[in-house]
Specification:
Structural class: mainly beta
Number of strands: 12
Number of domains: 2
Strand order of the largest sheet: 2-1-3-4
Helix content: under 10%
Radius of gyration: 22 Å
Largest sheet: 4 strands, antiparallel
Shape: globular
Strand content: 35-45%
CATH class of the largest domain: Mainly Beta
Order of helices and strands: EEEEHEEEEEEEHE
CATH architecture of the largest domain: Sandwich
Number of helices: 2
Length: 261
């Protein structure tokens, strides 16, 4: 049996493994080990620690027994956490396929000027939306074998920002389009005028869209921020308001788009 610990989302694949000696008697295992991950303070609230338990088999594929996911925003990191948790079933192949990806951006609000600054930094592991992988191609040549076409593992993503009040969009902005990638890097900044007496009433929708020159561009997923948000999105918005004039960066997991009525 062995354990794998991994902080998600991550910019590069980082994990640590603990292998238990075979002489440990099942079903109880006693161990005391330390693991260390370097995580910038600004990114802690957006991280989830995943602990996976595997059954080791020398002659065949290792089977995952279960896993535990601990959102770091849900615990007090100033104190040591000691508790028992039941293992959740391993993630299925369909669940892995339904992952939409992650996006990192910073928020900064200046109350005196009523300026909301959003810096879109990057996105990782975006879900490919084009089955044929022809996003952004505006023609079909007579001899396609003589031309290069992006493969199905790529997309042409851009990020759309919508500032909403009472369900109505009052301002929108978008990044440039990054060609043929599921891991785009932007580092693009945008500013919205939001008076201090309105900051509690607005919400910001950050949507990642796969650009398509031929047909309709398809949204991959989104993050909704504001005082009525939940989870990591609410924590990010609250941290921004609690730290005026200071940019607060955080990773977010993209959520599914609402169904059109």
């Amino acid at each position: 049996m062995y354990f794998i610990l991994r902080p998600l989302p991550q910019k590069k694949k980082t994990q640590q493994k603990l292998i238990l000696p075979s002489f440990f008697p099942p079903p109880l295992f006693f161990f005391f080990f330390f693991f260390f991950f370097l995580v910038p303070y600004a990114e802690v609230a957006g991280k989830t620690l995943v602990m996976m338990v595997y059954d080791f088999d020398r002659f065949s594929k290792h089977d995952q027994i279960g896993q535990i996911k601990v959102p770091l925003s849900s615990i007090d990191l100033c104190n040591v956490l000691e508790e028992w948790r039941d293992l959740s079933p391993p993630e299925t192949d369909s669940e892995k396929e339904n992952r939409l990806g992650d996006i990192c951006f910073s928020l900064r609000y200046v109350p005196t000027s009523g300026r909301l600054n959003v810096n879109i930094l990057e996105a990782k592991n975006l879900k490919k939306m084009d089955v044929g992988g022809l996003s952004g191609v505006n023609f079909l040549p007579l001899y396609p074998s003589l031309f290069f076409f992006p493969t199905a593992s790529h997309a042409d993503p851009y990020v759309k920002l919508s500032l909403m009040v009472g369900g109505k969009r009052i301002k929108k902005k978008k990044t440039t389009i990054k060609k043929y990638t599921l891991n785009p890097y932007y580092n693009e900044s945008f500013a919205f005028d939001v008076p201090f007496d309105q900051i509690q009433k607005v919400h910001l929708i950050v949507t990642v869209v796969d650009y398509d020159r031929i047909g309709t561009s398809e949204p991959i997923g989104r993050v909704v921020l504001g005082c009525n948000a939940t989870g990591a999105a609410l924590r990010h918005w609250s941290d921004m308001l609690s730290n005026p004039r200071r940019p607060i960066a955080q990773w977010h997991t993209l959520q599914e788009m609402p169904e059109k009525s």
